[in-house]
Task: structure prediction
Amino acid sequence: MKRLVVLGGGESGVGAARLGKEKGFQVFVSDKNTIAKAYKDVLLNYEIEFEEEKHTASKILNADVVMKSPGIPETVPLVKQIRAAGISIISEIELASRYTDAMLIAITGSNGKTTTASLTHHLLKTELSAGLAGNIGDSFAKQVLNFSHTHYVLEVSSFQLDDIERFKPHIAILTNITPDHLDRYNYQFENYIASKFRIVENQTSDDVFIYDADDEVISDWIKNNPIQSRLLPFSLTKTIEQGAYFKNKNIVITIDNSQIIMPTENLALEGKHNIKNAMAASTVAHLLKIRKQTIRESLENFQGVEHRLEYVLKINKVQYINDSKATNVNATYFALESMDAPTVWIVGGVDKGNDYKELFPFINEKVKAIICLGTDNSKLFEAFGNMVDIIVETQYMSEAVKIAYKVADAGDNVLLSPACASFDLFENYEDRGRQFKNAVRNL
Result:
């Protein structure tokens, strides 16, 4: 019996452990932190051996294969030991993909992947049996166990792609690449780019690669690194012969000899970046022969993703907006770009080597006050201190929202768009977003 060791007892780890057990592996789960009660109950229920608050090397280094949680970096001594022992380390998407014959549609990118994945799933699910997994909702492994969908839309991160071997999506989407998570890639942007492009490394000429043709980082890579799959780019500025482009407020999608034209006037999602997300998702839908009418209706009734430019409440004519999912500068760029009123901006958290320069034009034009919400705000003060009249710091969400309430006037926006990770003061970006919404509702 082969031994599967799972590092990390969270959503992906517990899903992988259950799938491994079902497929005949001897499974052991090890987490150096405590495992949440809900996940512990699952492990106990399925009689899967586990340990928490420690890693016992002797129980790990006898594995045939190790599945590690995407949150564990390569630099951890235990990971180095596993590598030195010649044991294969895979991610949960690699493991789960080995046990399904479903068509995989995988989406990655520095920004927009959650919205694009959710929107793609929304477009497909009315006419196909489609699951949504990866970084969203239930783990891919758990869904492979519980459902027999014919299609899976997967949101995948660079960390998950770092540990693939045979993972091969029939349709791969790359929304964009901007510097992010550089702390995990030796501060080498090239390493991060290479990691994102692993989404196509096992594709053949029968597969499809959909990408943003306006993104120079992506275009340069494609010029210098031959890709086997069929290319279907999308663009806001160029005319695209095979793929999607934007013209006269319409999305035009051409695949072979079939063309569809989608008006964007009634798109539920606002902003240029969402037209790109809509182009990517619609290209998949058109490729999979979803009816034009279905695509149009689905684009118009899609409500977006929680914590991504989510309109919370209007109080005294001030609009409060939760964009907690903006964990890097580029995401915050899109948020500030879409603001059409003076904005009180709540920013800060764990800085991943951010360069704030690209935000300067918006700060001058749209931001009236900045509230820094992090344990170390020195870099924010350095970047923006001279650009606004009001810049303050706090370590409590409730206080940040109260300050915003005092500073904002009728007609203003209050925007939580942190441009940073959340782990200094919050469990994750969802926790941060929910605390913001609760604080707003308690005003």
Notes: The radius of gyration is 22 Å. The longest strand covers residues 367-373. The mean pLDDT is 93. Residues 97-301 form a domain with the UDP-N-acetylmuramoyl-L-alanine:D-glutamate ligase fold (CATH 3.40.1190.10).
